[in-house]
Amino acid sequence: MDIGSIVLAGGKGLRLGYEKALETVGNKSLIQWVVSSLSFFSSDIIIVTAAKQFFPQFIDYPKLKMVTDAYPGKGPLGGIYTGLAASDSSYNLVVACDMPFLNQALLDYMIQISASFDLVVPRLGNMVEP
């Protein structure tokens, strides 16, 4: 199965005062943790950014592509659309840049069942997860 990955990193960082993707946990930025986790499932990773954002720490990832959100200010849906439009994959994992502790077993399960559904979204009880 052809799996792509899309990381939404176009937030304004208003609460922090800077891009939250660059906040560090341990020895890596949040976005580095996310890309590292997704690389187990896909070498084709797309980072959707706001205008003028650049993450130089990914310069050595040959299959990583950075695209600018085609619908700035429209929230995550604009970023999801932009990422899907830029993807060559039939199936895509879509995650936010501030999720350093992605559950790889859950992502693997979602991939396994994805062929039977148009969309797979995790939930805990009746609460749909972001």
UniProtKB/TrEMBL annotation:
Alphabetical list of Pfam families matching this protein: NTP_transf_3
Stored InterPro entries: MobA-like_NTP_Trfase, Molybde_CF_guanTrfase, Nucleotide-diphossugar_trans
SUPFAM superfamilies tied to this protein: Nucleotide-diphospho-sugar transferases
Gene3D superfamilies: Spore Coat Polysaccharide Biosynthesis Protein SpsA, Chain A (3.90.550.10)
GO MF annotations in UniProt: GTP binding; metal ion binding; nucleotidyltransferase activity
Keywords: Cytoplasm, GTP-binding, Magnesium, Metal-binding, Molybdenum cofactor biosynthesis, Nucleotide-binding, Transferase
Residues annotated as domain MobA-like NTP transferase: 6-124
Protein known as: MobA-like NTP transferase domain-containing protein
Taxonomic source organism: marine sediment metagenome
